Backbone:
């Protein structure tokens, strides 16, 4: 990940002020790496990850907290990155799907999604996996119904729900 | 989304000073605090909220739950909904609050949402959220599109000819049943407001929803000492089983002595303009036998003043059954 390469700093302002007027300096720690950025305060964490840092694994579905496609971890907890401003996350530890596992060293939830065929188009999958990985550390009952309830913040248009639940239960039974 | 100046509040005073620059703390505020952001960003993206300044209050020391020496529980305004729901004291002594919180939104949203933000979340009325259409709450005097329009999910209690929006919060219903008190700090110092006096019915000023003035910061919410020998239930009815707002909900705190109710609090959600305490239902239950007939009398009394709209008349019977069922669960031995 070399986000600093793709983020072009603002042009030197012609009048010395206005071009940078609305840009804020912020340092984000994403997947273990600290990155210094200049961003518009309106930038959501989701847009910052995707557009500024080119980490496009995190998806945008609804942009209003209604689908879960944008789920990432902030300090180990799952959140909707579309409903928080990037400038609010100075000093936080952010993990995206790119940082959860790698080809060859998949996170157990990633491996289980493969094994259980827990997706169809795959658009919701990064959010599902980030949600499921966080769920492992949360208070959650043992039954499938408990998992369904805990995963209700992630919508799947393809209806891959049964396999998503079995993938998660598989990982939980191994722990 | 319109441009705004972003700042982080260095302390409570700092936040109050920044907030006081706004002409109002109600609809149209030019300064907004951001806590979890799950209501504010949603509405800023729709240009329904257009603050010139956004003040991040997440650095303030308001994120703890404390047992006070007099037995009350003090919940900091920045305590996240998930942390509050799973707090051991809340789980065992204020179960109705834990249940209500866990019935709301999703795990991700509950990790972000705060006590103060949930208290102040805005209505989900689709016309409020759509700037292309008239809405008295968003644009005072423009008219209410919902009264002649899509009002299936809207209120039947505490409405007016100017607005029929519901208060969508589950947490607020439980806080009302528990008799919570809101602590506020503002330019004139500190004050406390019981939750029943915190929210206003719409009347002819639906844009004014609560007692907050510019600069007012909600610092905490306190709960009275745990009600003794009470069972507590939150029952939420909705179009889908999870990640959905209530069509009707009931929060019950009840104690039974020798087969009759010796203590009872009933609050309703999803059907009213504000979190709705039903004194009428409570009156019908005190000293009454614990049976279906009493429950039904209470439910009838609670909804006696209901004013249905073109598409939400079903909510009257739904809310009644919700009360009856919740009372049944609360008193099942
Ligand atoms: C898809 C979706 C589904 C949802 N489903 C449900 C549901 O089923 N049940 C339910 O109850 N809720 C539901 N919610 C709403 C959610 O609970 C609220 O958005 C959340 O509780 C708001 O808290 P917050 O901290 O994120 O608020 P913010 O967005 O940060 O703030 C909300 C408002 O309160 C003000 N504010 C915040 N803190 C303070 C303070 N300390 N003092 C003064 N002002 C303050 C802000 O300025 C802002 O105006 C849902 C939300 C979404 C997006
Ligand atoms: S019900 Fe209230 S919020 Fe909805 S359109 Fe009417 S005035 Fe606006
Ligand atoms: S994109 Fe964030 S919840 Fe849908
Ligand atoms: S796999 Fe297509 S949306 Fe879930």
Residues:
């Amino acid at each position: 990940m070399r986000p600093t390469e793709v983020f072009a700093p603002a042009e030197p302002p012609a009048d010395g002020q206005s071009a940078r007027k609305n840009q804020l300096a912020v340092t984000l720690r994403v997947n273990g790496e600290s990155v210094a950025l200049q961003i518009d305060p309106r930038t959501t964490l989701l847009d910052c990850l995707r557009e500024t840092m080119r980490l496009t694994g995190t998806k945008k579905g609804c942009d209003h907290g209604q689908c879960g496609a944008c789920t990432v971890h902030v300090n180990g907890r799952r959140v909707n990155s579309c409903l928080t401003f990037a400038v609010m996350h100075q000093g936080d530890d952010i993990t995206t799907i790119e940082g959860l596992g790698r080809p060859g060293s998949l996170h157990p939830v990633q491996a289980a999604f493969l094994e259980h065929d827990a997706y169809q188009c795959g658009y919701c999958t990064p959010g599902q996996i980030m949600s499921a990985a966080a769920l492992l550390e949360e208070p959650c009952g043992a039954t499938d119904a408990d998992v369904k309830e805990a995963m209700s913040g992630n919508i799947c248009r393809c209806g891959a729900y049964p396999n998503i639940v079995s993938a998660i239960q598989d990982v939980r039974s191994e722990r | 989304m319109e441009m705004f100046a972003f700042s982080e509040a260095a302390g409570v005073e700092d936040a109050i000073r920044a907030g006081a620059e706004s002409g109002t703390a109600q609809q149209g505020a030019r300064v907004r605090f951001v806590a979890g952001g799950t209501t504010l960003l949603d509405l800023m993206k729709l240009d329904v909220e257009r603050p010139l300044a956004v003040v991040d209050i997440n650095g303030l020391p308001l994120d703890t739950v404390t047992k006070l020496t007099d037995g009350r529980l003090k919940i900091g305004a920045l305590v996240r909904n998930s942390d509050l729901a799973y707090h051991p004291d809340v789980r065992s002594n204020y179960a109705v609050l834990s249940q209500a919180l866990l019935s709301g939104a999703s795990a991700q949203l509950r990790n972000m949402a705060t006590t103060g933000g949930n208290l102040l979340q805005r209505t989900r009325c689709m016309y409020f959220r759509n700037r292309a259409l008239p809405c008295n709450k968003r644009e005072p005097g423009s008219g209410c599109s919902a009264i002649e329009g899509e009002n299936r999910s809207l209120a039947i209690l505490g409405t007016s000819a100017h607005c029929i929006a519901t208060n969508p919060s589950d947490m607020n219903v439980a806080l009302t049943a528990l008799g919570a008190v809101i602590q506020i700090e503002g330019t004139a110092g500190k004050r406390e407001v019981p939750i029943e006096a915190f929210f206003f019915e719409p009347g002819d000023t639906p844009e004014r929803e609560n007692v907050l003035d510019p600069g007012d910061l909600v610092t905490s919410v306190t709960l009275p000492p745990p009600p003794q020998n009470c069972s507590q239930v939150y029952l939420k009815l909705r179009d889908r089983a999870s990640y959905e707002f209530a069509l009707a909900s009931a929060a019950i705190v009840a104690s039974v002595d020798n087969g009759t109710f010796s203590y009872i609090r009933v609050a309703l959600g999803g059907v009213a303009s504000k979190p709705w305490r039903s004194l009428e239902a409570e009156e019908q239950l005190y000293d009454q036998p614990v049976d279906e007939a009493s429950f039904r009398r209470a439910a009838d009394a609670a909804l006696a003043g209901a004013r249905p709209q073109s598409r939400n008349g079903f909510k009257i019977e739904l809310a009644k059954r919700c009360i009856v069922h919740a009372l049944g669960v609360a008193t099942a031995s």
